[in-house]
Specification:
The chain is built from 15 helices and 15 strands. It is an alpha+beta fold.
Length: about 475
Amino acid sequence: MKGFGQYDATGLAELVAKRDVSPEELLTSALEAAEAAQADLNCFTRFFDGPAREQISNGLSDGPFKGVPFATKDLGVKLKGQPMTNGSRAFKDNVADMDATLTERYRKAGLVIFAQTTSPEFGLTTSTESALYGLTRNPWNTAHTSGGSSGGASACVASGVIPMAHASDGGGSIRIPAACTGLVGLKPSRGRVPMGPPLSENWFGLSTNHCVSHSVRDSAALLDATHGQEPGARYVAPAPASSFLKASKTDPKPLKIALWTSAPNGVRPGEEAQAGLERTCALLRDLGHIVEEAAPALDGEALGKGMMMIVSSAMAAIADEREATLGRKIGADDFEPVSLRFIELGRTVPMAELVKTNSAFTEAAWVLEQFMQTGGYDLLLAPTLSQPPVELGVLSLDPSDFDAYGEAVTTFAPWCPVFNQAGWPAISLPLHITQEGLPLGMMFGARLGREDLLYSIAGQLERAAPWTDRRAPIWFG
């Protein structure tokens, strides 16, 4: 937003509260910036100018973000009467028939929803590229990915269009885009943030909603405003002891942190990721924390296979349902090549494999807990990405070489899915810039329900090594 890029969402809400700026002015500025960003970055699927102005004229809720422009992702959250394509040609005419519970909570927080951001087809890859909407570009270098699947959200926030945007994460899709674009990205605990209605879980509970943001306090305050059990949900995350915002302002006691350098599939940090880890460890030790290299003994083969079983069976169910709706068989004009392979595999998955998958995931959570208890660890630390953001095309759902694609997608961010599988929270923080000038985030993970501890360490690191004034080369704020 031109003239407002120096403010985070909390700061913009303070301007509105003091009547230094009106919600209408912020919306107009955001729309102008978004249109400019769309030309360079292709990070939006559509704008909701009319509904956003109507929301303002009807009176905004007096929440913590009253009057702040906000965008939701084209995956994971419904807006009644608006398209929800999930980045897929098979759903290009799909329209949401109700508001998501999370949409209602966003509006109650005072956010003005004015746009929808891009996602790859059903969030199936870690770069935001689709046959329906094209390539979404990174404002730090437009030849590179802004991450996935919340790459539209990360591109628009990292380029200063808005200070915070909705994102969702089933295997890293909040943290990876944040890591690629220099943002804060927290994946909450399973059951912390609403997913429905009518379905309160996706990918058998792996997926969750939250945001990408410039500041830690925005992420914490938004979680304060949106967390809690939704109607019909079968589980809920442990209640926080106090507000997440308060936690973000409070330095933690000296912590013992496990430095996790070998991912479950054996991948180790590349040169830049290792440099980021070393810088982060030095900063942590300067702040009084203990960091030692240690890793949980996880079954990487079982966890990797489990992700394939979950995602492919989910895609098969989606394809079956879409065929019933369309009254015809789906094909290459509906779904992208990698998606079709998932669908084909999913239609052959024996039911026993899903039970084995669930067992592998629950065992992983137990192994993690035992590792933390035995070692006396408070947090885990790993690079969010094993390497800098890759060039566009490497992680496309329409690859020229399926084997190369498989290698790329499983090695790019191999530490991320474990936290979805265990249900634990994790946060990516913008603690490293590569020699080529690209962000590369570092990730902290905590036990189930301990977002407060993640926000506490994140706030301390943000104060010790500030990043909110850092600007991408392509900037619209």
